[in-house]
């Protein structure tokens, strides 16, 4: 969302972000990043420990393949000018011509430079007054979100329990932690 390149945050900036996000973790993190002039990754790292976890970017393909088995999810791309959401099953992708290609039988498709993913984030927090949200965020080398994949919701806007279990298991596996400890 920022229009300019984020700067390296100072220790004071990080302390202020940690305090702010501990008190109110439910806002739009891209707006916080733009307001403070730091990357989305830096803001996400300042969320309380129980609300975020990270795995290395090399696990991005494993994350994509796992999520292709979850059923209907929401893929979100957030820029300064657009918040684009697409709901559907995530297709199984494959590498070709420098891209991770998604195609076949879903409204979700496209070509991702997955090799540019440096960090895979797992964020589970309240959002904008709704109950719970859970997303897998693919961060590039600039600390910005390439895209996010959100756990699906039922008709009552509650997270789908089977997808929450898969989210937690994927987080634990990609971080190398036993399930239930990540």
TrEMBL record:
Pfam families, per the entry: ChuX_HutX (PF06228)
Gene: hutX
Source organism superkingdom: Bacteria
CDD domains in UniProt: ChuX_HutX-like (cd16829)
Protein known as: Heme utilization cystosolic carrier protein HutX
NCBIfam families linked: HutX
